[in-house]
Amino acid sequence: MNVDSAKELPTVLSFCSGYGGLERGLDLAGFEHRVIAHVEIEAYAIANLANKMERGKLLPAPIWSNLKTLPVQPFRDKVDLITGGYPCQPFSAAGERKGDKDPRHLWPHIRRHIKAIRPVRVFFENVEGHISLGLREVISDLESLGYKTMWGLFSAREVGAPHQRKRVYILADSNGVRCDRGKLPDRVGERSVAIEAQQRPEQPVVRSKVKGCGGKTRKSHWEIEPNVGRVVDGCPDRVDRIRLLGNGVVPQTAAKAWITLNKRLGES
Question: Of 16, 88, 213, 235, which is the active-site residue?
Answer without folding.
Answer: 88
